[in-house]
């Protein structure tokens, strides 16, 4: 489990991560979503002790990363596909890490099989495609069978098979009870795998909720309605307190009233309904809605009094 408490990073007066207080729970896949420069990588680097917070703190199972007794069994991370020596083979790369961390050779074979790299174990990493390097990075992260798994943009460069494989893998890791934090720009991908979603924009927390909750809380969900006289129904629905927008094709998009209430209102107005469909916005719609106008950089004045820091 990862716990952040007012976690903040300031680079030369600019806030990159602003007062994040969050918990990444075991047993679930938590999606970490945000546009370029939102602060996802900076947050992950602070979790992993590669960067010092300017303010606040972050712990893994109650400890700072540097105080963890056997870090490989606590947390495994994939941050950069290129953070490897290209002259080494995949097997040599994993052997070096395993030797340094007291991990058995059997576990190397398991990870090579798990990540689909069995046939290229003896090839230099420099000859690998981006997708193969991603797989190797994930194998490295999982080598110590860690309780917490952090994957930064793991879907980059994966082909269709790789995407399916990674979806299944992240879900399985969560089912095994691990805390799985996955960052991505790909909202559709996050929708497929995440149980919970953390959304950042310009370092600020925009949302931290279960996927279902996120969709329900959105003002964007509505009921699509069509009947024999849409104009007449619109008048009736507005009287009941609904907000109604008429689309270009004439159908009504009804907010703040449920399907049953809309159906009863149509019955009252003696109108035959042709369509009554609840429309949940996609994660992409939600993201636009949640970040709109809320992502401006906040003033750094207060934080700057507590110091500025470079990495
Ligand atoms: N070492 C650094 N020095 C100065 N500014 C930095 C440094 N690292 C990150 N930043 C700034 O912090 C902000 C957040 O960057 P970060 O890489 O964490 O975002 P991100 O959400 O991971 O984006 P991306 O998906 O593009 O990698 C950006 O404005 C970035 O320019």
Automatic annotation (TrEMBL):
Residues 2-227 form the ABC transporter domain. GO terms for molecular function: ATP binding. InterPro entries: AAA+_ATPase, ABC_transporter-like_ATP-bd, ABC_transporter-like_CS, P-loop_NTPase. The keyword ATP-binding applies. It comes from the Bacteria. Pfam families: ABC_tran. Keywords: ATP-binding, Nucleotide-binding, Transport. Belongs to the ABC transporter superfamily. This is ABC transporter ATP-binding protein.
């Amino acid at each position: 489990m990862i716990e952040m408490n007012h976690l903040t990073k300031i680079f030369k007066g600019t806030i990159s991560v602003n007062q994040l207080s969050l918990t990444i729970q075991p047993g679930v896949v938590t999606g970490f979503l945000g546009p370029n420069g939102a602060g996802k990588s900076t947050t992950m680097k602070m979790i992993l002790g590669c960067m010092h917070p300017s303010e606040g703190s972050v712990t893994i199972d109650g400890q700072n990363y540097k105080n963890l007794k056997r870090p490989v069994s606590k947390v495994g991370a994939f941050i950069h596909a290129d953070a490897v020596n290209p002259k080494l083979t995949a097997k040599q790369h994993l052997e070096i890490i395993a030797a340094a961390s007291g991990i058995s050779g059997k576990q190397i074979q398991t990870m090579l099989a798990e990540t689909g790299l069995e046939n290229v174990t003896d090839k230099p990493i420099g000859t690998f495609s981006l997708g193969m390097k991603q797989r190797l990075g994930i194998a490295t992260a999982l080598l110590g069978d860690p309780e917490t798994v952090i994957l930064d943009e793991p879907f980059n460069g994966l082909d269709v098979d790789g995407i399916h494989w990674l979806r299944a893998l992240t879900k399985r890791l969560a089912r095994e009870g691990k805390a799985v934090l996955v960052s991505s720009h790909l909202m559709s991908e996050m929708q497929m795998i995440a149980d919970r979603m953390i959304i950042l924009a310009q370092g600020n927390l925009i949302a931290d909720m279960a996927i279902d909750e996120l969709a329900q809380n959105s003002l964007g969900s509505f009921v699509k309605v069509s009947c024999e006289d849409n104009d007449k129904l619109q008048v009736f629905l507005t009287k009941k307190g609904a907000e109604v927008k008429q689309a270009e094709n004439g159908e009504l998009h009804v907010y703040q009233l449920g399907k049953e209430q809309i159906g009863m209102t149509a019955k009252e107005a003696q109108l035959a309904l042709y369509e009554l469909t609840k429309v949940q916005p996609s994660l992409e719609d939600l993201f636009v809605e949640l970040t709109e106008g809320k992502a401006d950089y906040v003033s750094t004045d207060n934080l700057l009094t507590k110091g500025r820091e470079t990495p």
